[in-house]
């Protein structure tokens, strides 16, 4: 059934088989189009798993669309989902940071990239868990979210030409604190395999800013 495919997709993604996870999610979503009426919560979960699989492959535009679809499936009356919101914020932060890494140092970032980082920051800051100090045994998913929040803040500090020097310096210090917090914690998810390298590049950017 569909739930088996959802569980299989999650397992595939966590073991580094994101492409197969994407295929399982898409097959399940096709099955959900049959006359049988499935719960919207199941469809939301399917779209969320698809978003995660796409994110792991750096298919960020499709991942963001799938995650927004998952959020819409929950209905306007549903309370915000920290899990879905956190995923969308992380996708946007990854997307913006990947674009930053592909641009020569002498070139300016596209406005869309800065806007993605800004939206990511807004979404992640709204998560109640990230509004509190990190716990000693914090789940690695929240550590990853803090890392991505730091990335989003740093990208804006480096690329937003509308910031004055005082604001830019304050934002750089804030990003450094977030990245320092996440640097001492393990991030086991396969899709975060490059996070250590990203963090080093971020810290180098702070030092030279």
> What's the Cα radius of gyration?
18 Å
Structural class: mainly alpha
Shape: elongated
What oligomeric arrangement do these chains adopt? Answer: single chain
- The tally of beta strands, per DSSP, is 0
**Fraction in beta strands:** under 5%
The H-and-E topology, N to C, reads as HHHHHHHHH
The poorly predicted ranges are 186-199
Q: How is this structure best described in words?
A:
There is one protein chain. With 209 residues, the protein is an all-alpha fold. It is 70% helix and 0% strand. It is built from nine helices and no strands. It has helices at residues 2-14, 18-31, 40-56, 60-73, 82-102, 111-125, 140-159, 165-183, 195-208. Helix 2 (18-31) runs antiparallel to helix 3 (40-56) and helix 5 packs antiparallel against helix 6 (111-125). It starts with a helix and ends with a helix.
């Amino acid at each position: 059934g569909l739930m088996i495919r959802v569980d299989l997709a999650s397992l595939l993604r966590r073991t580094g088989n994101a492409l197969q996870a994407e295929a399982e999610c898409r097959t399940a979503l096709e099955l959900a189009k049959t006359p049988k009426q499935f719960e919207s919560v199941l469809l939301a979960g399917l779209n969320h798993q698809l978003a995660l699989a796409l994110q792991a492959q750096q298919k960020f535009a499709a991942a963001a669309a799938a995650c927004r679809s998952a959020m819409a499936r929950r209905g306007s009356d549903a309370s915000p989902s920290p899990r879905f919101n956190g995923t969308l914020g992380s996708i946007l932060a990854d997307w913006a940071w990947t674009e930053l890494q592909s641009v020569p140092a002498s070139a300016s970032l596209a406005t869309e990239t800065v806007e993605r980082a800004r939206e990511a920051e807004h979404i992640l800051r709204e998560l109640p868990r990230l509004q509190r100090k990190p716990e000693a045994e914090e789940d690695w998913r929240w550590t990853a979210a803090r890392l991505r929040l730091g990335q989003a803040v740093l990208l804006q500090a480096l690329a937003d030409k509308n910031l004055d020097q005082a604001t830019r310096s304050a934002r750089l210090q804030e990003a450094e604190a977030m990245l320092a917090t996440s640097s001492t914690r393990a991030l086991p998810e396969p899709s975060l395999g490059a996070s250590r390298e990203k963090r080093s590049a971020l810290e180098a950017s702070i030092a030279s800013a």
